[in-house]
């Protein structure tokens, strides 16, 4: 539901805010006062093209802020959440600006794209004008409205069709993975080569790391041996100043000194332990030197093994584990393709079974739709008759067949209408009369307003060319729609004005040579006065007539 709309610097509007009620909101005023600017501003907030010519003269920037209560729009709230935009306190604040340089869109303070805005807006507001409509003229919505209308009987059948269709598509996808026989033979040859190549390598996880360590050892054998020899020589060489020789001299000196000072015995013992540890190290180094075996053939084998492993990694994965996983996958695919004939035969049989059942269920769904379509046709024609279009014909065109088969069945549905007796049924988009289109849309909305999930409906002067008794009917229909949805209507009809729950008067004023559009929320006396103006009433009798219209409307609403 639209809670409020703030418009700034658009056309003749300087800065105004409208706070809307939950039911029937009427906007009226003299021609040219700026009523349609309000609807244009709302359309701009909902993603319509930014028309920079609407920026108020003398201003650089125009903006519109629309505040929505999402408590009755759970689908819009979910879409917002999926976009990462949270609706705090259940509210959505859309703020959009435009200037010569750029435009800016924000939803709950977050930057948004035009496509994001339009996706959310399509779930919140439906704007119906004399010659355009956001959803009913889109043929793709007609089958959705029909299915919603007949939901009780249609929905279970749609679910069955959708389940079968997805199973059927899954079977087709599985069959496509086998390819034809020549493709399978070629694929088996490739798989056989890949399996043999990886298997022959007898690859093990972690092997490359060990090989690289061995390769480094082979490549630096001379440096390693020289270093070990140097270390051993320093600790126990022929040089009189080797480490062991120096430790031995130090120990002899401390042993003599400790006989005079017992405190030095601890230092002597520490040197003795070091002497023993170094002798062990020297022994280990001798063993290392004696056991060091540099084999040119082994080094060559390591190099070749590293090259092989890296080649396999380039072909089948970035690691040894990935190569081994590829091997398992190749073996599994090979086994599957070897037994493909049996599997394909079973899949083909299941495909034919599912397809036959799918067509049968789709036919049942189509029959149910056609039955519901007859009920919808009768309701629409009844509404049109009450709206002064007696003799109008409405029907739903069905084109059904396997070429249309999908998760929703095999029907293509379009609304058709003949507004005048004797004329052929035609597509809605080809109806020329704006008044006829307006009344048809109103008739359909009376029936479908509870179905489409859109919480706010906007009627922009759909009562053009209507008066008298039909005006009363239009007012009653709008009242009926507003019992389940918020309705905003721009009108010239006193009957519609009399039915308002909230009424806004749009006026044009000139102050200091500047023209402004002002908006005033009318109290009860103001509503009576506006009804009188719209009725072209004069004096006491005009006021009395206005009061009678209002009293009758309130009685009906009660």
Itemize the secondary structure elements and their pairings.
Blueprint: E1 2-10, E2 13-19, E3 24-29, H1 35-45, E4 61-69, H2 74-82, E5 91-99, E6 103-107, E7 110-111, H3 114-121, E8 125-128, H4 140-149, H5 151-176, H6 181-201, H7 207-219, H8 221-236, H9 243-258, H10 265-291, H11 296-316, H12 320-338, H13 340-386, E9 393-400, E10 411-418, E11 426-427, H14 434-448, E12 456-460, H15 468-481, E13 486-490, H16 494-498, E14 502-511, E15 514-521, H17 524-534, H18 539-557
Parallel strand pairs: 3-13, 3-14, 8-12, 12-13
Antiparallel strand pairs: 1-2, 1-4, 4-5, 5-6, 6-7, 9-10, 10-11, 14-15
Helix pairs in contact: 4-5, 5-13, 6-12, 7-11, 8-10, 9-10, 11-12, 13-14, 14-15, 17-18
Short descriptors:
single chain; 558 residues; alpha/beta; Rossmann fold; 6-stranded mixed sheet; 18 helices
What's the CATH topology label of the largest domain?
Rossmann fold
Helix content, binned percent: 55-70%
Strand percent estimate: 15-25%
Number of helical regions: 18
Low-confidence stretches: none
- Identify the CATH homologous superfamily of the largest domain: P-loop containing nucleotide triphosphate hydrolases
Tell me what the CATH architecture of the largest domain is.
Answer: 3-Layer(aba) Sandwich
**Domain module tally:** 2
Can you tell me the CATH class of the largest domain? Alpha Beta
């Amino acid at each position: 539901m639209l809670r409020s709309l703030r418009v700034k610097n658009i056309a003749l509007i300087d800065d105004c805010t409208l706070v809307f009620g939950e039911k029937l909101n009427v906007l009226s005023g003299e021609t040219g006062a700026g009523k349609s600017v309000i609807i244009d501003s709302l359309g701009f907030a909902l993603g319509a093209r930014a028309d920079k010519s609407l920026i108020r003269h003398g201003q650089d920037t125009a903006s519109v802020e629309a505040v929505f209560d999402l408590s009755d729009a759970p689908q819009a709230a979910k879409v917002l959440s999926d976009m990462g935009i949270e609706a705090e306190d259940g509210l959505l604040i859309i703020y959009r600006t435009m200037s010569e340089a750029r435009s800016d869109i924000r939803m709950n303070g977050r930057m948004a794209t035009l496509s994001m805005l339009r996706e959310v807006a399509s779930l919140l507001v439906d704007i119906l004008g004399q010659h355009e409509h956001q959803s009913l003229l889109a043929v793709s919505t007609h089958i959705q409205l029909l299915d919603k209308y007949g939901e009780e009987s249609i929905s279970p059948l749609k679910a069955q069709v959708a389940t079968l269709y997805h199973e059927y598509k899954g079977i087709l996808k599985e069959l496509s993975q086998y390819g034809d026989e020549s493709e399978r033979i070629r694929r088996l040859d490739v798989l056989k080569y890949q399996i043999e190549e990886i298997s022959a390598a007898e690859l093990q996880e972690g092997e490359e790391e060990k090989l690289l360590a061995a390769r480094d050892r082979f490549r630096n054998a001379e440096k390693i041996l020289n270093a070990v020899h140097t270390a051993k020589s320093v600790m126990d060489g022929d040089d009189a100043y080797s480490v062991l020789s120096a430790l031995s001299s130090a120990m002899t000196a401390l042993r003599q000194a400790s006989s005079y000072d017992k405190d030095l015995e601890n230092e002597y013992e520490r040197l003795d332990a070091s002497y023993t540890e170094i002798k062990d190290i020297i022994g280990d180094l001798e063993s290392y030197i004696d056991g060091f075996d540099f084999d040119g053939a082994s080094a060559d084998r390591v190099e070749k093994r590293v090259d092989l492993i890296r080649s396999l990694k380039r072909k089948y994965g970035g690691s040894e584990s990935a190569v081994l996983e590829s091997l398992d996958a190749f073996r599994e695919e090979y086994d599957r393709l070897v037994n493909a004939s049996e599997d394909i035969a079973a899949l083909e049989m299941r495909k034919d079974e599912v397809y036959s059942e799918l067509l049968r269920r789709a036919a049942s769904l189509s029959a149910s739709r056609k039955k519901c379509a007859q009920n919808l046709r009768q309701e629409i024609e009844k509404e049109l008759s009450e709206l002064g279009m007696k003799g109008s014909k409405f029907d739903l065109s069905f084109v059904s067949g396997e070429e249309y088969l999908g998760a929703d069945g095999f029907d293509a549905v379009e609304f058709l209408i003949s507004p005048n007796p004797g004329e052929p049924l035609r597509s809605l988009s080809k109806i020329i009369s704006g008044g006829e289109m307006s009344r048809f849309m109103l008739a359909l909305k009376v029936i479908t307003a509870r179905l489409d999930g859109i919480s706010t409906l906007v009627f922009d002067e759909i009562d053009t060319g209507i008066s008298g008794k039909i005006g009363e009917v239009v007012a009653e229909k709008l009242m009926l729609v507003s019992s389940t949805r918020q309705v905003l209507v721009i009108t010239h009809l006193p009957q519609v004005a009399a039915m308002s729950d909230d009424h806004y008067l749009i006026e044009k004023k000139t102050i200091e040579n500047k023209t402004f559009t002002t908006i005033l929320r009318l109290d009860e006396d103001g509503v009576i006065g506006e009804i009188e103006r719209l009725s072209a009433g004069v004096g006491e009798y005009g006021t009395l007539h206005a009061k009678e219209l209002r009293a009758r409307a309130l009685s009906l609403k009660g």
